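User: Modeling request: complex.
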Amino acid sequence: AQTVTQSQPEMSVQEAETVTLSCTYDTSESDYYLFWYKQPPSRQMILVIRQEAYKQQNATENRFSVNFQKAAKSFSLKISDSQLGDAAMYFCAFGRRQGGSEKLVFGKGTKLTVNP
Amino acid sequence: DTAVSQTPKYLVTQMGNDKSIKCEQNLGHDTMYWYKQDSKKFLKIMFSYNNKELIINETVPNRFSPKSPDKAHLNLHINSLELGDSAVYFCASSQRYTVAQYFGPGTRLLVL
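Assistant: Request completed. Predicted assembly structure:
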């Protein structure tokens, strides 16, 4: 069974600074996907960024980028130029196809505080 | 336009009651899911349906019965509610083989 570990229950960053959230996972699969989801106080789950395991190039979405280290099974999220609106819970998720659907396994989350 | 919608957003009920949560997606996706987020924010899959067919059932008590009348809708019916059912329930959808899932706003269920 896959497991996802987020070792930082809480992190804080100053506005305009850069912060990196850690995620490691355990799997014996070779074909999978990795995601970061953001959950602000509104509780809406928002997809931030995704990475296909077969791609070596790290995914980037505006101020959000990942450092995907497949051999180390590590998938960290870097947020550049942090903004107050980035404050939220961030969940790392492992995804793979199972039967006719896709199964996501989530980490326990990291609560990010952005200080003005 | 809301991509994945759930009703109701809040549900407060007594132990032993039966309740339903509805989910609709207008993204044209063919796979839908139910997740439960507990009080510690841990999010776990409960069910997935692909084109109205049950694919994933993650050892959820059979008091929980999902129903998919068509591929745009996936409802969750819960019988004999227990205190431990209090949680936020999220519906999600995805297009087959894309893996990325899009979530609804969640339904906060409180069982008293």
